[in-house]
Amino acid sequence: MKEHFRKSQTDSILQNLVNKFRVDPQGFRSYLPEVAQELEQVLPARTKKSYTSELTELERKRSCESLCELLSRKRLSPVEAIQALEYCATLIQDESLPQVIDRKTLLSLLGQVVGTPISKMKKNNKIAVHDGEIAKEMAILRGVYLELTWNDRLVAISIFPNKFKERSRALKLVGIAEDSASDVSERHDAYLAKVY
Amino acid sequence: MLSPKRVIVDTSALYALTSATDAFHTQAKSSYERLLDWEWELCITSYILVETSALMHHRLGFQPLITFMETALSDVVRIVWVENTIHGEAWRRMMRRQGRDFSLVDWTTMVVAEQLKASVFTFDQGFRHEGILIFPH
Questions:
Q1: Per the domain annotation, does B111 fall within a domain?
Q2: What does the pLDDT look like over B23-79, one tens digit per residue?
Q3: Inter-residue long-range contacts of A103-109, CB under 8 Å, 24+ positions, other chains counted
Q4: What is the pLDDT of residue A37?
Q5: Alpha-carbon span B122 to A135, nearest angstrom
Q6: Residue B37 lies in a domain
Q7: In terms of Cα–Cα distance, which of A159, A174, A123 is closest to B31?
Q8: Which residue range(s) make up the domain with B55?
Q9: Is residue B27 part of a domain?
Q10: pLDDT for residue A36
């Protein structure tokens, strides 16, 4: 049987749903996944102000070169380590951080700035670095967030150790089995045809 | 917080991650670690879930399938349940190509990627040719 609502009632219901979704998208999704999926299609994907920008080729090259030059030094002062982290932040937002800058390097830089190895931290922590107005926050490692000014100056580092476990859990899948063939990922459709 | 970027993890990436002997394993592992660290929203469609499960169960056994399911159903992965409008659009595209180039699962992935403005974590370069952003670049 079809329910009859006044237009003002349907508008109000819809607005309430949109508001609930905006406040807690994850929670909303767990109760009403189909509605959440439809709202995601209708609402702008990035409702928050985003300063993420793509670098020009020249900016990317300069940032990479400056970062590599800093990392090639035998020892970094705390100021240099902060500078290196700022370059990393810029390149991560641009999705162009070179593969050679791995997790170990990032952990080492963070450890130098914070003064303690990140992996040994057990409680939530926030370490102030520079004065400045925070314009954005981004994850550099799971559970480790950089708070940055609009032009990527590092204001503070926030650490949430409980997020480290999430990462470990998600990595349990990696390399747990071996296949006699090495081309299954690439040719999975052909291999699936053999399954059925 | 900058809005998280979204990525749909397809069967090729999931299989390369799980199988240590796969040609793309190392690349898949380093890309996956980055996605986890940069806290991208990892999505798997229900069709990818079924396709990957069948492949893993058949080729790798039941234990790897259990680990895969535990990861897929954990809080770091979001499952996008394919409903009839997505399925219908994917099927229309497949019909237009007369079944060439891509499977129905791939077409579904592309439709969802467009709707969620997501990249696709894949080693199938065909997605790029269809204008979909893929990861790793």
A1: no
A2: 999 999 999 999 999 999 999 999 999 999 999 999 999 999 999 999 998 888 999
A3: A103/A141, A103/B33, A103/B37, A105/A71, A106/A140, A106/A141, A106/B37, A107/A141, A109/A76, A109/A81, A109/A84, A109/A85
A4: 77
A5: 33
A6: yes
A7: A174
A8: 6-81+118-135
A9: yes
A10: 81
What's the pLDDT at B2?
Answer: 64
| A-contacting residues in B 45-104 (Cβ below 8 Å) | 51, 54-56, 58-61, 63-64, 67-68, 70-71, 74-78, 80-81, 83, 103
Residues near B24 by beta carbon (within 8 Å), at least 6 away in sequence = A185, A186, B12, B13, B16, B123
* Strand B6-9 relative to strand A136-141, pairing: unpaired
End-to-end CA distance of chain A: 42
pLDDT value, residue A55: 86
**Residue from A163, A151, A161, A181 nearest A114 by CA:** A161
pLDDT by 10-residue block (mean), chain A, 196 residues = 75 80 69 79 49 76 94 91 95 91 94 91 92 92 94 94 91 96 94 84
Residue B23 sits at the chain A interface (C-beta within 8 Å): yes
Question: Amino acid identity, residue B77?
Answer: V
Q: Count up the domains in chain B and report the number.
A: 1
Max Cα distance, chain A (Å): 75
The amino acid at B9: V
State how far residue A148 is from chain B, nearest Cα, in angstroms: 10
Q: Under an 8 A CB cutoff, do A139 and B38 touch? A: yes
Complex ipTM? 0.91
Interface test with B, best of A171, A179, A191, A196 (most B CBs within 10 A): A179
Residue B8 DSSP label: E
Residue A147, class by beta-carbon neighbours within 10 Å (0-12 exposed, 13-18 middle, 19+ buried)? buried
In this prediction the pTM is 0.80
CATH at B122: 3.40.50.1010
Q: What percent of chain B has pLDDT over 70?
A: 98
**A·B CB contacts under 8 A:** 152
Is residue B24, in this structure, part of any structural domain at all? yes
